[in-house]
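Quarterly update from the structural biology core.
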Amino acid sequence: MADREFLTSNWRENHYFLDAAPFAGLTSIDVPALFLMGKQDWICGWEDQYDLFKKFTRASFIVLEGSGHMLHMEKREMASTCVQDWLKTLG
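Predicted structure, tokenized:
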């Protein structure tokens, strides 16, 4: 079922925002995490994810130039290499 109110809004101009910030009540999150984003992502925006990233004590933050929201398709090999290299750091 589609959210008609959202689909008929001007979300492309105002972008998409969550109603509540994820993990807003937490000061730190101690789990491994990989933030892998495309620099040209106009849907989520890589800069918007940085505040969330700062809560993770064991996270990596990677921004791929020349890719957007579908970076796993746009930069398949580079994204795959980033994930594989990050997984190796986990031991």
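The chain has a mean pLDDT of 85.
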